[in-house]
């Protein structure tokens, strides 16, 4: 309990919380697991999900969809997202992500139009689902659920037995994850310090 007080004394401010959720995966065609949550396999039939794994070449459609989606955060109960990023920062972050080892990139298309994008990284039997965004005009139409379902299927096929995802509390992302078998592992506080604030000696 003293950590929060000490960080506050040093100029950090609580900006919000994030929930980390996880689920067990079952290999394709394998028996059900030991009672853990099983991901849903339902998705919108009018959506096409395309994946590129370990491809270091640029994929403009993927990056453009992520930048557009993250540039307009979704509203959540209790107010807006605490996250806000300039386009230049998003471009840098997405560019770095595109070059990372083991990253699989996904786009969702409806009638040939890219409407969303996502990423996944598999390491040590754990699939980290991240970087999912839907274009504002296509939210609440099953895009995120379709991207989530496809990544869970691919993670199981690649030998992962656990998947994790981070969401905002009470968000549609958390709702979709829980519908697909995820359960809350823990919540983490987001504390931010203005670099201009003078450091208080320990």
Give your account of this protein's structure.
The protein has 202 residues and is an alpha+beta fold. The protein is built from 5 helices and 7 strands. The protein has helices spanning 2-9, 60-71, 87-99, 143-157, 172-179, and strands at residues 12-24, 47-53, 103-110, 113-123, 126-134, 162-167, 183-193. It has a 7-stranded mixed β-sheet with strand order 2-3-4-5-6-1-7, with helices on both faces. β3 and β4 (113-123) form a beta hairpin. α2 (60-71) crosses α3 (87-99). It is globular, with a radius of gyration of 18 Å. Mean pLDDT is 80; it is low at 31-43.
Chart the SSEs and their pairings.
Elements: H1 2-9, E1 12-24, E2 47-53, H2 60-71, H3 87-99, E3 103-110, E4 113-123, E5 126-134, H4 143-157, E6 162-167, H5 172-179, E7 183-193
Parallel strand pairs: 5-6
Antiparallel strand pairs: 1-6, 1-7, 2-3, 3-4, 4-5
């Amino acid at each position: 309990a003293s950590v929060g007080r000490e960080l506050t004394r040093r100029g950090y401010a609580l900006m919000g919380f994030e929930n980390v959720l996880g689920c067990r995966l079952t290999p394709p065609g394998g028996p059900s697991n030991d009672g853990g949550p099983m991901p849903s396999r339902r998705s919108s039939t009018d959506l096409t999900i395309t994946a590129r794994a370990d491809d270091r070449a640029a994929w403009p459609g993927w990056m453009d969809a992520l930048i557009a989606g993250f540039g307009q955060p979704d509203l959540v109960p209790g107010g807006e997202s605490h996250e806000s990023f300039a386009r230049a920062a998003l471009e840098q972050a997405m560019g770095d992500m595109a070059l990372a080892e083991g990253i699989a990139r996904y786009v969702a298309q409806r009638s040939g139009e890219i409407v969303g994008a996502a990423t996944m990284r598999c390491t040590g039997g754990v699939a980290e689902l991240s970087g999912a965004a839907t274009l504002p005009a296509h939210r609440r139409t099953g895009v995120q659920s379709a991207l989530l379902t496809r990544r869970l299927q691919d993670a199981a096929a690649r030998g992962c037995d656990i998947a994790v995802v981070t969401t905002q509390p009470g968000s549609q992302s958390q709702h979709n994850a829980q519908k697909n078998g995820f359960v809350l592992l823990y919540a983490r506080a987001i504390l931010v310090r203005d670099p201009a604030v003078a450091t208080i000696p320990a």
